[in-house]
Amino acid sequence: MSTSAISTSTPIYDLLVQERGDALAEARTAAHRIHDEARQVLDWSSVRIAAAQREERAFSAFGRSSRSGDDDGRVRALPM
Asked: pTM for the whole thing?
């Protein structure tokens, strides 16, 4: 049988879709909806942005943020 002789029609599937509905299309739609919901629920970007904004507004008695990139958290002696 050659490739050109193979039918692209799916009469059994078409009949099932008519009788029972298109389960594949429904599953695909549900998967997209769940994917979008999961992305929204697991989106922590607003939390990170709010934390960064709080850090920027934080008061520092020494004139710089307590969490600057070059600070390792240790207490430094003031210059004499």
From this structure: 0.42
